[in-house]
Amino acid sequence: MTAKSRKMLLAVSSAVFALGLGAVGVSFAANEEMPIPKPVLHAPGPKMVPVPDFTPIVDKYGNAIVKIDDSDTKVVGGHQGQNPFPKNSPFYQFFRNFPGAQPPQKEKEEALGSGFIISPNGYIVTAGHVVRGMHHIVVTLTNHHAYPAKVVGLSVRYDTALLKIDAHDLPTVELGNSKDLKVGQWLLAIGMPFGFYNTVTQGVVSALDRSLPHDDEYIPFIQSDVPINPGNSGGPIFNMSGQVVGINDQIYTNDGGYMGLSFSIPINTAMRAVDAFLAHKKLHFGWLGVDVQEVTPQMAQALHLKEPVGALVANVEPDEAAAKAGLKTGDVIVTYDHKPVYSVGSLPPLVGDTPPGTTVPIGILRNGKPETINAFIGTMPQKMRHAEMDKVVDIHRLGLRVSGLDAAEKKALGIRHGVFIESVYPGPAAEIGLHEGMAIQEIDQQPVDSPEQLESIVKGLPAHQPISVLIRQGHNSLFVVIHLPKN
């Protein structure tokens, strides 16, 4: 190649190179250095929240979580419509034509739940439904040491139970304040789903003060998306400070599996029951004395309200707190003790959690105009507290577990004395056909008015001697004979 050819090729190459860079807005002479491009500046994005680290909570409090189960044989009902007892049983003639009777059968019951230790000497908190009906509760620690447990107290309305095991120097959790929770905060659950020890799941607070129907209307539930499965019930949920702020209670599901909706009992609500149990006091609920209903959009229009919120008063009971305060039928309760009442379900937990004897301001809409009245909150009547098992006792010598009957229940059964049989397990009671749902009125011709009284009487009875027991089933009573083993 001649010098002239080389010179022409270089010129063409430089021109092509310059044309290529020019396509991106950059050009320079062949003898210049290529400039360093400047970075393009973007607007600052949202600040990234660091992923939480739950390991300190698990390390510190994991050993304070326990498994609760009951694997003993339980005497339960069987096929409906048959005589519940064999022909040689003293109950055979009595229940020969009893409608809907079920013969007692023995089956293996595998109840399972979680709990957490609140004191080094063995007090444990769990959900009430976990242990209700259990006759032989076993608490197992994470080191697999198992202990028999007794129920100190159980509240059905708060679905909270307090257990006691005979142990010392146990690890404990730290209790927090569920009122400080906010939607969106991280939560951590530790429990025993399906029996898997110390299973950890996490999520966030989805909503607060959720109301659920039926027996749970007095619990302002914490809703979260923490995965909860069978066996998690009764276990704790922690905040990011490592404090227990709730008790895992139930899930919302169509098929029995987790669907992202979990509900927990606020720890403040649960501890109200626990404190009463520890002090050996009855758990009292506030009482307003009204029937309320939902404010639908059509009802809001009919009442000339701007929006369908609050609880519409449908009835005011005479001589109760609401009537004395001047509340009237047709009033719409929109606040209670300065807390909003968005719907009818918001009101019962607020009233029930109020200590009787407290004066509370109630915001209402009367004829569409706002007013405030002050109500002196009363005590829930005894007839409404029939589900509260403030004291349940295992009578091991009989082989059954009993709870007290209040005045309304005794009246409904047509008896003056008695205790309710919660469950029966293998022993003298099961051998003669006693079963859950019956009432024991007398034993050894001595009237029984409380579980403690029955326990005391039974301790003093002779062994292997015929003892008379007066039983109530429905509206029928019958004397039976039982033989007790040695104490």
UniProtKB/TrEMBL annotation:
It catalyses: Acts on substrates that are at least partially unfolded. The cleavage site P1 residue is normally between a pair of hydrophobic residues, such as Val-|-Val. This is Probable periplasmic serine endoprotease DegP-like. The active site is at H129 (charge relay system), D159 (charge relay system), S233 (charge relay system). Belongs to the peptidase S1C family. Gene3D superfamilies: 2.30.42.10, 2.40.10.120. Its main location: periplasm. Its EC number is 3.4.21.107. Pfam families: PDZ, PDZ_2, Trypsin_2.
